[in-house]
Amino acid sequence: MRDVRLLIVEDEAELRKSLRLGLAEDGFTITCADRAEHAERLLADQVFDAIVLDLRLPGKDGIDFLREIRAAGNPTPVLALTARGSLDDRVIGLDSGADDYLTKPFAFAELLARLRALIRRRTIGTQSTLKAGGLEFDTVRRRALRDGRDLALSPKEAILLELLMRNAGQPVTRDMIAEVVWGTGYNDFTNLIEVFINRLRQKISDGPGDSPIATVRGVGYSIRSH
Which of 6, 152, 199, 212 has the smallest C-beta neighbourhood within 10 Å, fewest atoms? Predict the structure, then answer.
């Protein structure tokens, strides 16, 4: 990760300092901002390889900042930081153009792994469009297409499909789905996951038996990679 430039937008001084020191030790070149307005000025003058963005900022919040840079055509991968259990923040953040999210408090090793994954995807040119199972998913505009047809997914359906497509060809467990799509709001005694999987299958399929989503018995679900 040498020569990789990161912009950290975080108003908590101690967390900002910790991220700056830890990521610099791992070889990243770090620039920090404590407000969205400061980050906007930095983006006007510099190019970054990724942004770590707190969604709850004083003044202009992170979600408005994210929407504005995406509307302006800025494709820089964004790792959004959200409060634990704040499902609305996660859904809105992903819908607004975040590429991934991490809930506070978090392990530094996980943040590092997610950043590396975002940067790898950008390096191979796939940070904004995922392809799997005959589908295309635009991670910036939050749109899924099949043969050019907009699938009109709900926010949670979009998050579920993106999770499956990011892990194409591999099983995604029920626990992973529950954490990513519903967070702490998921009730293990409901069949909510099955309901959403069935809805998603109906929307992305051209007909009976056509769905690229397979049930992995005793584990969860997977989407074919081609």
Answer: 152
